[in-house]
């Protein structure tokens, strides 16, 4: 399992284009699957608050959705190919209002970085790790909660996805094995609390969100 966990970045580097195409295609429908959770996340953000997108991938639909609602996004990803796609996708999107034009100007800040050792030296109004955090093995996941805390301003919401129960799961990406891991839900709750976050909402295998297991928390002031 450790070999599969260690291969995640190389796997996404090889298939960045295919993954981006799939995400773009999935975001073209009339209903954005993640919309409900993103709305709850945005409701906790101050107007114009900046967001750190951890494991940002190609920037669609998550980062683009946030920018459309006036929130500058800094994207980080371990795969340089994903960061290039993120910049291209957001640069190609035409902001419809003065508010989102201002946000779009900031969204070009996209950084090649490993979330496990992230140390940007600044705090953000919100953090999101959608379909990225769960690719880490369990011990690196445990070590990431202080990283979340170090980058979250007081009151900042944190939105992330996991598996529904402790264990490993192997999916596929372009026919190659794709590793996922999860802690026990009780441990996620305990680690959020220890890192200074209050749990706002949690749904295991949400049927309204493609079966995602979702956590929404907020940094204590």
From TrEMBL:
Keywords: Methyltransferase, Transferase. Gene3D superfamilies: Vaccinia Virus protein VP39. GO terms for molecular function: methyltransferase activity. InterPro entries: SAM-dependent_MTases_sf (IPR029063). One of its GO terms (biological process) is methylation. Pfam families: Methyltransf_23 (PF13489). This is Methyltransferase. It comes from Ancylobacter defluvii.
């Amino acid at each position: 399992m450790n070999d599969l966990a260690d291969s995640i970045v190389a796997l996404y580097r090889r298939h960045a284009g295919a993954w981006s195409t799939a995400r773009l295609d999935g975001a073209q429908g009339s209903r954005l699957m993640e919309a409900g959770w993103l709305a709850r996340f945005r409701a906790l953000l101050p107007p114009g608050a900046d967001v750190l997108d951890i494991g940002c991938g190609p920037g669609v639909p998550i980062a683009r959705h946030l920018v459309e609602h006036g929130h500058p996004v800094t994207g980080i990803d371990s795969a340089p190919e994903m960061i290039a796609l993120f910049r291209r996708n957001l640069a190609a999107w035409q902001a419809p209002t003065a508010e989102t034009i201002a946000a779009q100007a900031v969204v070009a800040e996209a950084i090649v970085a490993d979330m496990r050792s992230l140390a940007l030296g600044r705090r953000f109004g919100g953090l999101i790790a959608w379909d990225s955090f769960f690719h880490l093995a369990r011990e690196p996941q445990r070590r990431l909660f202080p990283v979340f805390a170090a980058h979250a301003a007081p009151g900042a919401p944190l939105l992330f996805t996991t598996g529904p129960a402790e264990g490993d799961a192997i999916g596929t990406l372009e026919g190659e094995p794709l590793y996922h891991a999860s802690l026990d839900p009780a441990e996620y709750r305990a680690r959020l609390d220890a890192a200074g976050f209050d749990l706002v909402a949690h749904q295991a295998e949400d049927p309204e969100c493609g079966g995602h297991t979702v956590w929404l928390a907020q940094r204590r002031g």
